[in-house]
Amino acid sequence: MTGLQLFWFIIVGVLFSGFFFLEGFDYGVGMSAITIAKDKREIEQTIGSIGPVWDLNEVWLLTAGGAMFASFPYWYASLFSGFYLVLFLILVGLIFRGVTFEFRHHAHSEKGKMFWTKTLGVASFAIPFLFGLMFTSMIQGVPMDAHGNVSATFTTYVNPLSVVGGVAVLLLAWLHGLNYLALKTEGDLRARSAKVANILYFVLYAGEVVFAVLLAIFTDFFEKHFVGTLVLLVAIVVLTVVAHLAVRAKKEMTAFIASGLTFVALVALIFQGIFPRVMIATNPAHSILIKNASSTGYTLTAMTIVTLCILPFVLVYIGWTYYVFRKRIKK
Amino acid sequence: MFTIENLARFQFAMTTIFHFFFVPLSVGTVFMTALMETIYVKTGDEKWKKRTKFFGSIMLLSFAVGVVTGIIQEFQFGMNWSEYSRYVGDIFGAPLAVEALLAFFMESTFLGVWMFGWDKLGKKLHNATLWIVFVGTFLSSLWILAANSWMQNPVGYAVRGGRATLISFSALLTNPQTILEFAHVTTGFLLTGGFITAGIACFQILKNREVDMFKPVLRLGLLVALIASVGNFVAGDQQMIEVKNSQPMKFAAAEGVMTTTENPAEWAMVGFYNQADKEEIFGIHVPYMLSILTYHSPSSKNPPIQGVQELNKKLAEKYPEAAKELHGNFVPPINALFWTFRIMAGISMLMILLSALGLFWTRKKKPWLYENRPWLHIYGWFLYAPFIAITSGWLVTELGRYPWTVYGLFTIRDSVSPNVSVGSLIFSNSVYFLLFCFLGSVMIYFTVQRMRKGTEGAETAYVELDPFNKESFSVHDTQDEEETSKENEDKEANK
Predict the structure, then answer these.
(1) Which DSSP symbol is given to B307?
(2) Residue of B327, B314, B338 lying closest to B411 (CA atoms)
(3) Does the keyword tRNA-binding apply (chain B) (predicted)?
(4) Is B214 within the bounds of a domain?
């Protein structure tokens, strides 16, 4: 394995972390729009809080997908064709969710508006669940031939760990969204977000314990990387506790950052657990390794140069956008 | 019939065509909207602000559908074409990643700022954000077309270890195919923007809605359309010459040349072809014309244009392995290529003619077009023409690639995911089809609704209840009203 390959493995992880950190709360806010928002005004307030930024947050996913294609084409090809149906459902969710923001705005009857709001909420529940399902199925080892073609069955996608993983990601996103709402809104909604988050954190604790146990049973993370897995699992729990305490102490910024970092720790857990592989096969001989899955050194070098030139600008104007829309959203 | 290959090809065609209804529409309307806002900033005329918001709301609708259908495109290579992704990932992945990093972030970020930033930014800065979005769309096109051009005309690569590897990053961008495709496609975006704007203005004038509001818009649209149509025509002409050299089979099929021509060559205006025997069934020919179109001169010194039959033999000799797999058949669908090419070129001529005439008929001295209902109808319905032309253009480009995904390197048959079941593909195709019909209908419905309401109350993002907009008060109770007035007071105070 070369340094460049390792660097790009980390970059893909960073891009997925960025996606979950930023788009995670957008999904959470979408879920909140159909669960905790009480009336029309609160729905507008909820969705308005992510209006200007949700689209740029989603680009992290496209960049992560593109980077995976460019740096590890064999990983991209095996994962995307192997998890065909799950990804297809994610796409349908993303399509519906992506148009609702604009369509809600154009719908002139209350009924129409409500329809698109409900669509937004349902899609926001489905997408993080399906992402959790996909990543936690991937790490258990999937039936794969020597060429890297996955022959998935229903149980490849749906099994105890993947369902718990899906629910865990969904809960993380929802809490992250609630923390964002508490940070970005005023009035009842702000207080109610904190109240609901306080309850949901207890559910999440249970989820995390079950997840850790299933991780030990169904994956080889503890065999391969005992220390790293343990440290990151502890980090996830600690960050959850920190976020929870911050919610109770009304430290909204701390809670938001902590719940975002929980996602980062989760992505890190998955990436360090599969290391030095990118796809784990049920037959270990067929697993795809970082060193065989990547593009050539020339392409990786070119991509590195391009990324280092562009990324600082991207981060600056994204920061500027959040600065422009720093005000809390009124009811 | 229902093979993985056919279903994956159908899915790629369907998703690409649908995505590419909304790409030119959104890029074109972004340009027009930004232009209108610039006029507003320069003149300070509130009417232009209203026009900006009106066309801006239509632009945002198409942008939303364009973005979500674009996500499918990026994932599709891995999902349906995993073998292709493995073979070309070293080259093909990079432009896609760069596109996301360089362009998508720029578009989505600044579009968000523009939508919600009307009263948060200064006029000039606010207008600048939309121009940045526009630059982003062009950058995005450049990279995605670099990827497509590489499939059409592979450059800067070496085949090592059973896959194509990149040996020159700059070759991707300096590929002559890339430059021509970029010029042809982007002028296509702009003329779409022009005709859409003009067409919508015509319908508004016909329905007698805010006639004075839309008259200048009609002229602005036609002006953009004329300049872009001429540029588009020139770029397309150059591209065809490039295709003749790099993909002679595509050229021969599109021009209906079955056997190598004499000099000067005659051009088939109408033609029907037998695919199996590679022969013409019926055709109407114009002497000298093909030489004029191809070489811009009818001289007999030009090299003859190769026909489908000879090219097929040559290709079979050149690629013996592929020939075995394809039973020696390298011929793309001739009739489809011939006719889609004719439709595209025909509409292209019409566009130049109609935009020039329209500008002449709306001149200050004698603007009779505004009063002439039949012609207004023609200009109104003509807003669909660019879409037909653009779709035809992609069909020529992509069908003409047959039987390759990467020209001369990798066949379509070898590209598909072997592990995706036919059932999955039928399922995804059906869902996409229904979804696209639904999204397209909703989009058109909302656009028509917007036109009915005119420029009144057109906002690019949700704003708190606007006291000047009657609709806010159509459903309300007293409590609501009290809150609203309080809120407006708060708003004022915050300012």
Answers:
(1) P
(2) B327
(3) no
(4) yes
Quick one: pLDDT at residue B465? 43
Domain boundaries, chain A: 3-325
pLDDT of residue B463: 63
Instruction: Report CB contact under 8 Å: B97, A92.
Output: no
Give the lowest-confidence range in A116-130, A288-302, B201-215, B464-478: B464-478
Give the residue among A50, A22, A43, A27 at the shortest CA–CA distance from A124. Answer: A27
Contacts of B121 in chain A (CB under 8 A): 324
Cβ separation of B78 and A81 shorter than 8 Å? Answer: yes
CA distances from B312 to A255, B245, B316 (A): 67, 15, 6
Name the residue facing B68 among A78, A94, A106 (closest C-beta).
A94
How many independent structural domains does chain B possess? 2
CB contact under 8 A, A70 and B97: yes
Q: Do B71 and A99 touch (CB under 8 A)?
A: no
Judge: B89–A77 Cβ closer than 8 Å, yes or no. yes
- When pLDDT is cut at 50, 70 and 90, the band that residue B278 belongs to is very high
Query: Which of A51, A56, A151 lies nearest to residue B116, judging by beta carbons?
Result: A51
Least reliable range by pLDDT among A71-80, A176-185, A194-203, B286-295: B286-295
Chain A nearest-CA distance from B187, in A, is: 26
Cβ pair A55:B112 closer than 8 A: yes
How far away is chain B from the Cα of A304, in angstroms, using its nearest Cα?
A: 10
Residue B474 has pLDDT above 50, yes or no: no
- Model pLDDT, residue B460: 86
Token representation of residue B125: 């800065």
Question: What is residue B1's predicted lDDT score, i.e. its pLDDT?
Answer: 80
Neighbour count for residue B297 (Cβ, 10 Å): 12
Alpha-carbon distance of B5 to B3, in angstroms, equals 5
B454 interaction partners in chain A (CB closer than 8 Å): none
pLDDT for B235 equals 96
Name the percent of chain A lying above pLDDT 90.
97
Q: B426 vs chain A: nearest CA distance in angstroms?
A: 12
Contact residues on chain B for A66, CB-CB shorter than 8 A: 74, 93, 96-101
Residues of the domain holding B311: 248-332
> Would you say residue B479 has pLDDT above 70?
no
**d(Cα B70, Cα A62) in Å, to the nearest integer?**
10
In this prediction, residue B457 carries a pLDDT of: 82
Same domain? B260 vs B341: no
Hey, are the CB atoms on A82 and B419 less than 8 Å from each other? yes
State the Cα–Cα distance between residues A294 and B398, nearest whole angstrom: 29
Last residue of a domain, one of B297, B332, B367: B332
Q: What average pLDDT does this structure show over B426-450?
A: 96
Res B464 pLDDT > 50: yes
Contact B94 A299 (CB under 8 A): yes
Q: Between helices A73-82 and B46-80, what is the axis angle to 10°?
A: 90
Phi-psi domain of B210 (left: phi exceeds 0; alpha: psi -120 through 50; beta: other): left
Chain A partners within 8 Å of B22 (Cβ): none
Asked which of B310, B332, B354 is the last residue of a domain, the reply is B332
Task: Assess whether B340 and B226 both reside in one domain.
Answer: yes
Helices (H) and strands (E) in chain A, counts: 14, 2
Q: Name the percent of chain A lying above pLDDT 70.
A: 100
Element (H, E) at B392: helix B385-399
State the average pLDDT over residues B398-417: 94
In a domain, B295, yes or no: yes
Lowest mean pLDDT across A281-290, B94-103, B453-462: B453-462
Quote the CA–CA distance of A197 and B419 in Å, as a whole number. Answer: 42
What is the mean pLDDT of the segment spanning B73-80? 96
Are the Cβ atoms of A92 and B435 closer than 8 angstroms? yes
> Measured between CB atoms, which of A77, A310, A318 is closest to B109?
A318
